[in-house]
Amino acid sequence: MSWSHYCELLTISDSDKRSFYEKEAINSGWSTRELKRQISTSLYERLLLSEGKTNKETVLALAEKGIEMSTPLDIIKDPYVFEFLGVPENKPMLESDLEKALVAQIEKFLLELGRGFMFVGTQQRITLNNTHYYADMVFYNKILRAYVLIELKTTKLTPEAAGQLNMYLNYYAAEVNDEHDNPPIGIILCTDKDSIAAEYALGGLSNNIFASRYVSYIPNKEQLIAQVEAVLNEWHKQKKE
Fold first, then answer.
1. CA angle at residue 47 from 104 to 113, to 5 degrees?
2. What is the pLDDT of residues 15-64, one digit of tens each?
3. How far apart are CA 118 and CA 145, in angstroms?
4. How many other CB atoms are found less than 10 A from the CB of residue 28?
5. DSSP result, 120-171
């Protein structure tokens, strides 16, 4: 890393957080600008909250090793941050326009998705019984050796979106995967999700499908830190009982 990288890292007082960004900057080959962007969008806190089971062990694991990518869950963030699109907060947007905007900024979108992602294409055709369907965005993650299908929704999560994506994943597993590929992964990017509704919509599916929110602005860092601390405090409380 360059001196500029270390200057950015020295602005972080928390040693675990600083260690995480140092490991990821090395592992992912971030430029100084990319490192600064990941710090400003609170990648560390977003990853901890995405786990849904934040505890001291997950904090130490991120600090010591960075992001370990061995399971589909390891690539998930919540929320995803699309501040690079320059879209005003809460401005209505068509799914097709969101897709075009992400493709136009594909390098920044790949940075936000994380390590190992390669862009395959948009509106990838899937034909079943002479009926054509189209997956919004398809990527391949070379570390997990799996296709990643992303469905864009400019609304909150719906059960229909989960069912549609599940069908696409079944098709990819049967018709697109080769013998060296792992089962495909599905991500529904939506503006909001209800935890109970998400549990019922995604529960019981044989495929790896995840729902995450996306925002078009940099989240409030203090609020994310407070959320992480609240989860950790609850975990410590349960450990004592």
1. 20
2. 999 999 999 999 999 999 999 999 999 999 898 888 666 666 778 788 88
3. 11
4. 16
5. EEEEEEEEETTEEEEEEEEEEETTTTEEEEEEE-SSB--HHHHHHHHHHHHH
Find the angle CA(227)-CA(213)-CA(216) to the nearest 5 degrees: 95
Tokens of 22: 């140092």
How distant, in Å, are the alpha carbons of 20, 47, 112, 227, 230 from that of 17? 5, 11, 18, 15, 17
In this structure, are residues 126 and 134 in contact, taking their beta carbons and an 8 Å threshold?
A: yes
Whether the ω angle into residue 184 lies within 30 degrees of 0, i.e. cis, is no
pLDDT tens for each residue of 116-141 = 999 999 999 999 999 999 999 999 99
Residues 223-238: what's their mean pLDDT?
A: 77
Encoding tokens for residue 202?
């995604």
Strand duo 208-215 + 80-81: pairing: parallel
- The Cα–Cα gap between 141 and 115 comes to 8
Contact 75, 144 (CB under 8 A): yes
Do residues 153 and 44 make contact, with C-beta atoms less than 8 angstroms apart? no
- DSSP three-state, residue 210: strand
Q: What is the pLDDT of residue 106?
A: 97
Q: How much is the CA Rg of the chain, to the nearest whole Å?
A: 18
Q: What is the reported pTM?
A: 0.87
Name the average pLDDT for the chain. 89
Which tokens sit at 234?
């609850």
Closest CA to 217 of 47, 36, 48, 41: 41
Give the amino acid at 72.
P
